[in-house]
Amino acid sequence: MTTLAFRNQAQKVLFDEELRGQISDGFWENAGPWEHWKPWTSMDLHVIVDPDNVGRDFHVRKDNYNLAAKALLDVVGDRMVDAVRTLSRDADDGLLNEDYDMRQMRADLRDMKAIFRTRRS
Q: For the chain, how many structural domains are there in total?
């Protein structure tokens, strides 16, 4: 099993609910190199929240996805924000992240881009 660890629950929701699909057969469907999407969408990929040890423990052919691309967010950005609002809970109090907005999402996506490139111990 391989693991991808994010800093917070919102990032996990963004990946699970939207980005995983965009990498495999959406926004980056025709990106190179060949079969770049396979490790990111594998059934063996375990996606977790571990703010003390973010990153991945598997090899990838591509890790430089522009997760905050304007062309992507113009189409699915609102849907991504709504997913976080309805599916993620704050770690401190367990409440839904109802105040999550596009600004916060862009910050999470920039962080996730760095996390994609980080090797997890």
A: 1
User: Please, what is the angle between helix 102-116 and helix 70-87, to 10°?
Assistant: 100
List the pLDDT tens digit at each of the 121 positions of the chain.
899 999 999 999 999 999 999 888 777 677 666 777 688 888 899 999 999 999 999 999 999 999 999 999 999 999 999 999 998 876 666 667 788 999 999 999 999 999 999 999 8
List the one residue out of 44, 55, 70 whose CA is nearest residue 11. Answer: 55
List C-alpha distances in Å: 33 to 11, 26, 30, 51, 64: 25, 15, 9, 30, 11
Residue 121 lies in a domain: no
